[in-house]
Amino acid sequence: MKTIVIPQRYVYAGNLILVNAKHAYHEKIAKCSLAPVNAESSNILLERRAAVLLSKLMDSIDGWAQISFVSGWRSKREQEDIFSQSIAENGTAFTEKFVARPDHSEHQTGLAIDLGIKQPNIDFIRPDFPYSGICQTFRGKAAMYGFIERYPKGKEDITGIAHEPWHFRYVGMPHAAIIAKMGITLEEYISFLKRFSYGKKCFDYQKDNQRIAVSYIEAAGTKTECELDDKLPYSISGNNVDGFVLTEWRDGNGKR
Ligand SMILES: [Zn+2]
Q1: Considering 47, 106, 164, 187, which one is annotated as catalytic?
Q2: Is 248 a catalytic residue?
Q3: 215 C-alpha to center of ligand 1: Å?
Q4: CATH, domain range 1-16+185-256
């Protein structure tokens, strides 16, 4: 075992950060952490790992000719411009339904992408991404590559955002698969994980021969200390609320 020390600011970083009307994005992603998904859309950037996995997902469905990247990472300034422009053009009611306020947009994290089916005129705020054809094939495989449809129908009261079939969020594996299987939102997943307090209980995700344990670590002030099994691969993400999500890759028998 080894003791790791997690600084407070890590609460606000990682693939699982919850960014919504209640929880602002506190970080500023470094430009060197961003990459284009492909050369053709070199102005659409995502956090590097999300960009690589989105590219692999597009390869796997042979989607390049039919799916466009409409919007990826946005600076705070761009989000401010989009928000005020939408207020001017579409009014407040529409804008509040579909456009997040600056610092409350997932697009500032580099982990969100808006997609549209390729057509001559693509609506920037509400691109067409139907539940059929290649777009539905994309949805079917998204979780396998760590992406979730972030604002599903029927969950508007929870996400605070209208149904957006085009907006996908990278949360990584196995979280995307768990979220998709449970049919929940990121808001619900972050709350759900609080039942699995590290050291007491964990949520087990089993796939093929791999067992992955997910648990929650509450932030304890400026530094959170945690005893981890140093033989297991693990990753830690902040939840952007009050703690961290620990993901441990255990062996197929569940042995530690
Ligand atoms: Zn979006």
Answers
A1: 164
A2: no
A3: 28
A4: 3.30.200.180
pLDDT, averaged across the chain: 94
SS (H, E, C) the chain: CEEEEEEHHHHHCCCCCCCCCCCCCCCCCCHHHEEECCHHHCCCEEEHHHHHHHHHHHHHHCCCCCEEEEECCCCHHHHHHHHHHHHHHHCHHHHHHHCCCCCCCHHHHCCEEEEEECCCCCCCCCCCCCCCHHHHHHHHHHHHHCEEEEECCCCHHHHCCCCEEEEEEECCCCHHHHHHHHCCCHHHHHHHHHHCECCCCCEEEEECCEEEEEEEEECCCCEEEEEECCCCCEEEEECCCCEEEEEEEECCCCCC
Q: Helix crossing, 133-142 with 48-61: angle to 10°?
A: 130
Question: Structurally, what CATH architecture does the domain formed by 27-170 represent?
Answer: 2-Layer Sandwich (3.30)
How confident is the model over 162-208, as pLDDT tens digits? 999 999 999 999 999 999 999 999 999 999 999 999 989 999 999 88
* Whole-angstrom distance, CA of residue 237 vs CA of residue 244: 5
Cα of 84 vs centre of ligand 1, distance in Å, is 16
In the reported structure, the alpha carbon of residue 112 is separated from the centroid of ligand 1 by a whole-number distance in angstroms of 6
pLDDT digits (tens, 9 = 90+) for 7-40: 999 999 999 999 999 999 998 899 999 999 998 8
Domain boundary assignment for the chain: 1-16+185-256, 27-170
C-alpha 113 to ligand 1 mean position (Å): 6
- HSE-CB for 52 with a 13 A CA cutoff: 4
